[in-house]
Design goal:
Helices cover 44% and strands 12% of the residues. With 433 residues, it is α/β, with parallel strands linked by helices. Strands 1, 2, 3, 4, 9 and 10 form a 6-stranded mixed β-sheet that branches. It has a 4-stranded mixed β-sheet with strand order 6-7-5-8. The N terminus is likely disordered.
Length: 433
């Protein structure tokens, strides 16, 4: 409750600043410099334990590669905490110069004119190659007016990780999993009578449920933008299936709660310790997995519909309140982090999806994926994935879905009931625009 209250108060303050034009969270009109004369750039980010370490290594390499800028880093427990603290920092004129955010959070800040338009920097850079950025990721940082409010740092998509031995013992060929109904049958076959082995573990939260709904032809809102569709049959059929699999059939299980990413690693451990047939998890999990134990396949379609899970971009934003020199330092790091060579290092170390097409031509990356074909599964899925959903209400529709997902996954509330309530809340927010 306290965290929600803080976030709400920060949002009100930020909205007031955006309307009145009385500030953009600026800290100083001039850049701060360290003892060596380098412009100091503050960077806030979060991520899993491996990703945080690799990102810090990249920052350290950037700092050593030149003397004009020095990146200072601060990490948070997760993406939501980064955003909460960022809002507080903006309101208190103590914001960083750069942050790593989900697409919806970047877009929310952009709509309040709190992040800079990066077009100014890329247009002045003869070396910038827009066409080399994978379209599904790059376009998530461009608004309807063409403002480039964020650059993609890396992509992520949820794939299926299965326990090789458990599948083999059950006589299940993972390449035959073409629909969620196929996975249901596999989970039923794997689950033991005493519950010591569960068939499948979806990752806690609404993301898996949304992905499966998109793979059933679902849409967030109508084409005319007037009607929220989250209680349509395409949504309800999928979410009710998951409720039944988890609560009625007990062939699936969801871990929840804990500190930070605790629930995530508990889920992974179940699969690695032969307690579950598999789980639905991030491409970024690949760095923490033992692929002598697990394999990876793409998410399937639902029923007769093709697979269409989200392919999200994690984005780097430049805060509007920073000085010109600090903004230039932010851009230089954005450019450095997204070189094909650094994207190759990042993807190999973390499992996240590279955002540059030419990454596949980097010799080390090509050799790595030839030897580790599972590393290409997220990239292949992203090519036919759905862009991160755009919530025109500034997050109210997605917040309603998060509540509904917990009701379905954790509380055994029928999907129709949970999604009807979510739709009512979401429609009110949509009508208020």
């Amino acid at each position: 409750m306290r965290k929600k209250l803080v976030a709400m108060l920060c949002s009100v303050t930020i909205a007031a600043m955006a309307v009145t034009g009385c500030g953009t969270g600026a800290k100083n009109s001039t850049a701060k410099k360290n003892a060596n004369g380098a412009v100091e750039v503050d960077f806030w980010f979060s991520g899993g334990k491996t990703a945080v370490n690799v990102l810090q290594d990249t920052v350290d390499a950037f700092n050593k590669s030149q003397k004009k800028y020095h990146i200072n880093t601060v990490t948070q427990a997760d993406y939501d905490e980064t955003y909460e603290k960022l809002q507080a920092g903006i309101a208190g004129k103590n914001a960083p110069d750069m942050a790593l955010l989900d697409t919806d959070k970047s877009r929310n800040l952009s709509e309040k004119n709190l992040v800079a338009d990066i077009n100014e920097y890329v247009e002045a850079d003869d070396e910038f190659d827009k066409d080399d950025y994978i379209e599904v990721f790059y376009e998530q940082g461009v608004d309807a007016d063409g403002k480039l409010f964020a650059l993609p740092a890396y992509g992520t998509t949820q794939v299926l990780y299965y326990n090789k031995q458990i599948f083999a013992d059950a006589g299940i060929d993972p390449t035959t999993i073409k629909t969620w109904q196929d996975l249901e049958a596999a989970a039923e076959k794997i689950t033991t009578d005493d519950g010591s082995v569960i068939g499948w573990e979806p990752m806690w939260g609404y993301a898996n449920l949304v992905d499966a709904a998109l793979s059933n032809g679902a849409s967030l809102i109508s084409e005319d933008g007037e009607t929220c569709l989250i209680n349509s049959p395409e949504w309800v059929d999928v979410w009710e299936s998951f409720r039944q699999w988890i609560h009625d059939d007990q062939i699936m299980k969801v871990h929840s709660g804990g500190q930070g990413w605790e629930y995530w690693y508990t889920t992974i451990d179940d699969v690695l310790q032969n307690k579950a047939g598999g789980y639905t998890g991030s491409s970024g999990d690949q760095a923490d997995l033992d692929f002598s134990i697990v394999g990876a396949i793409e998410q399937p379609g639902f029923g007769d519909n093709p697979s269409a899970p989200t392919a999200d971009a994690l984005q780097l934003v430049m805060l509007e309140g920073s000085s010109d020199e600090e903004k230039q330092g932010v851009y230089e790091f954005m450019k450095y982090f997204t070189t094909p060579e650094n994207q190759a290092k990042w993807s190999m170390a973390t499992g996240y999806v590279a955002v540059r097409e030419s990454t596949q031509e980097v010799p080390d990356f090509k050799a790595y994926t030839d030897e580790n074909p599972h590393a290409l599964v997220p990239l292949q899925q992203s090519m036919h994935g759905t862009s991160a959903l755009v919530d025109p209400t500034g997050g109210k529709i997605l917040d309603a879905l998060k509540i509904a997902a917990d009701q379905v996954e954790l509380e055994n509330v029928p999907a129709q009931e949970a999604l009807d309530a979510a739709q009512e809340t979401a429609q009110e927010a949509l009508d208020a625009l």
